[in-house]
Write a structure and sequence with these properties.
Length: 414
């Protein structure tokens, strides 16, 4: 029930004009922003879907970018690995040639010159830097040189030559998210790629009566293993063998010392994280030393890198030792080449997986964008039609209000 007064028509007209102006302003804002929803209350259900779709779209775009970045890194890495494989194939050809015993001492020294240059190129590949300035084969320690080179005097050479190559990176890996809670591991550890033989550690300390005096934690090849108070060497061996580490432990039947061996060609990484278990078992010096060069002086080490194999071959050429070239050196080179081929195959498989994820995320981004468009984008045909109708209604209201209140001061001056 409305009260009839002289102000009723004026108030109703002003209220209608404000409402029409609000609708007109909302339509203009929709066209200006190209978005159907200006406020959450415009369509709460659609707004909820839109927020989730946009959040998911941002994640999908990030997944695609991650996969593409990984693909680029795998391309760089595989290129240097393939070049290193060509080098090792040439080194093996020279080893087969040098092992036949038909060359003179001077001929073998001339061959050693080429082998030394190939060794330098191999070290150069191992210390390769990617486009973003990171060392490719240094694990996650990408700002440090992957391999340090030590020069020294070698019998048969009048100039200092590469005598030792030490790994300076780490064995940590990067886990890159390429899908919802799905990760692709980027393993760039150079002491796996450029390794020739399974490494074995033989402790010289009798561990048959050893027992842990307190709880401790050891790290074997990057896997942490808990040692409980009262554990003996057999319990430690069982825990290492049951862990995820690619390492097998055993007790030496002669010396009763702890033996560790990798299951594939790689450098063994052992340290005490908490306590002194490995130190007491005679494997490492102490917790302050950094692996992999923290081994106890009494530990015998077997299994070297590609660089060790090539260095041994060069030195054998300089000394004229054809017997070593035809047996130990050639066998080590073959194992190194086999490991390098395996690493290249693994890198190629990882590249293919990264590409598959990049392509899938690219298509998924289009699908999610379509969902975002359906919920939030403006129908321009309908919006322009509504705008014209609102503008026409507003103009008609203003015209009608002008006719209703056409009296002016001049009407009272007649």
């Amino acid at each position: 029930m409305h009260r009839i007064s002289s102000q009723m028509n004026n108030l109703n007209t002003q209220s209608s004009l404000r409402l029409q102006e609000s609708r007109l302003n909302r339509a203009n804002n929709q066209i200006g922003s190209q978005q159907k929803i200006q406020q959450l209350r415009d369509d709460p259900i659609a707004a909820g879907h839109l927020v989730r779709y946009q959040s998911y779209l941002n994640r999908v775009n990030a997944f695609e970018k991650n996969a593409q970045t990984l693909s680029d890194q795998f391309v760089y890495r595989e290129g240097y690995m393939d070049d290193s494989l060509q080098i090792m194939q040439r080194v093996r050809e020279l080893a087969v040639t040098g092992a036949n015993g038909l060359f003179t001492r001077d001929d073998m020294k001339n061959m050693a010159v080429e082998v030394d240059e190939l060794l330098k190129q191999l070290v150069q590949n191992a210390n390769a830097i990617s486009a973003d300035g990171n060392y490719i084969f240094a694990g996650t320690n990408t700002k440090s040189v992957a391999f340090d080179v030590e020069l020294g005097n070698v019998e048969g050479s009048g100039v200092p030559l590469i005598q030792n190559v030490r790994y300076n990176g780490n064995i940590d890996v990067n886990q890159v998210e390429i899908d919802e809670h799905k990760y692709l591991v980027n393993d760039n550890a150079g002491n796996k790629t450029f390794w020739a033989e399974n490494q074995q550690l033989f402790s010289g300390r009798d561990a048959s009566s050893w027992q842990a005096v307190s709880d401790g934690v050891i790290s074997v090849d990057g896997v942490q293993i808990k040692i409980s108070q009262g554990d003996n060497v057999y319990a430690v061996i069982a825990k290492i063998n049951d862990s995820d580490a690619a390492v097998k432990a055993s007790l030496d039947p002669v010396r009763n010392g702890l033996n560790l061996s990798t299951t594939d060609a790689r450098q063994l990484w052992v340290q005490d994280v908490q306590g002194n278990v490995m130190n007491e078992l005679g494997i490492v010096k102490d917790a302050s030393q950094r692996p992999p060069y923290n081994l106890n002086d009494s530990v015998r080490v077997s299994g070297g890198s590609l660089f060790d194999s090539v260095i041994a071959f060069r030195n054998a050429l300089l000394s004229g030792d054809t017997e070593s070239i035809g047996s130990r050196v050639l066998g080590s080179l073959d194992m190194g080449i086999s490991n390098l081929v395996t690493r290249i195959s693994k890198s190629g498989a990882e590249y293919e997986r990264a590409q598959i994820n990049a392509q899938r995320n690219s298509k998924l981004a289009l699908d999610v964008t379509q969902q975002v468009s359906r919920e939030g984008d403006l129908d321009f045909t309908k919006a322009i039609t509504d705008l014209k109708m609102l503008d026409y209604t507003n103009q008609a209201t203003l015209s009608q209000a002008g006719k209703m209140y056409s009296s002016t001061l001049l009407n009272y001056m007649r």
